[in-house]
Design a protein that fits this description.
Blueprint (H helix, E strand, L loop, with lengths): L4 H18 L3 E5 L3 E2 L5 H9 L2 E6 L10 E2 L7 E6 L16 E4 L3 E4 L7 E4 L2 H18 L5 H11 L1 E2 L12 E2 L52
Parallel strand pairs: 1-3, 3-5, 5-6
Antiparallel strand pairs: 2-4, 7-8, 9-10
Length: about 220
């Protein structure tokens, strides 16, 4: 399919308004993309500020996700694709990627009927895997902010297992670790910042010292005449 940038932005704004009306944490899953960097920073940033977490596809031209939108948006979780053997899919973009997820030969529901399926490949397949884990995290801990939910998702991920990555690309493979007792720390909110130190006491007022006493005046008796 295709659409306009204005239509994408309007869709994000609608989803944010719907999430606010429902009063529940929400995830935006965006399996779409186009050329140009940072085109959706403002609208995704506004969603982030309202508590809505956005998950986006890195793109499928074996190029630089930093030059794609919304893949280049820093406040979104950008998802690359892996093959069955945990190697980067040959089409998957980098290096502006936060996490990788299965995206090769994925069978999923399709249009046409309630039972239709199709097997296809792309970062658009990896993105909903990641959005699903993010949704589970926010369901378990609704009080987590988008930043905290992102940190938990990346905390769950398996590190340094994806092969074939371009330079400066995060090596993290999506993993739903919420049933592991040892991983419970990933769902804990960040500790509050320590309180600021009390202000220093004001300097004492300057008091000018009193002037020194006048020097004594020597007087001499009159001379005898």
């Amino acid at each position: 399919g295709s659409g306009s940038s204005a239509g994408v932005s309007a869709g994000i704004e609608w989803a944010v308004a719907d999430a606010k009306a429902r009063g529940k944490p929400a995830i935006l899953s965006m399996s779409l993309g186009g050329g140009g960097s940072n085109r959706y920073d403002a609208v995704i940033g506004a969603a982030h500020a309202e508590g809505v977490l956005t998950v986006v596809a890195a793109g499928n031209n074996n190029g630089d996700a930093c030059r794609k939108s919304p893949a280049s948006t820093a406040l979104a979780i950008t998802v690359g694709s892996t093959d069955r053997g945990d190697g980067r899919s040959s089409f998957s973009n980098g290096p502006c990627v936060d996490v990788f997820a299965p995206g090769r030969d994925i069978t999923a529901a399709w249009s046409g009927s309630d039972t239709a399926t199709r097997t296809i490949s792309g970062t658009s397949m990896a993105t909903p895997h990641t959005a699903g884990v993010a949704a589970q995290i926010r369901a378990l801990q609704p009080s987590l902010t988008p930043d905290e939910a992102t940190a938990a998702l990346l905390c769950f991920s398996t590190k340094d297992i994806v092969t074939g990555l371009p330079a400066d690309t995060a090596n993290a493979l999506l993993f739903n670790n919420r049933f592991d007792a040892e991983a419970a720390v990933c769902l804990e909110p960040a500790p509050p910042s320590p309180p600021s130190p009390p202000p220093a006491p004001p300097a004492p007022p300057f008091i000018r010292p009193p002037p020194p006493p006048p020097s004594p005046i020597n007087t001499f008796p009159p001379s005898a005449t």
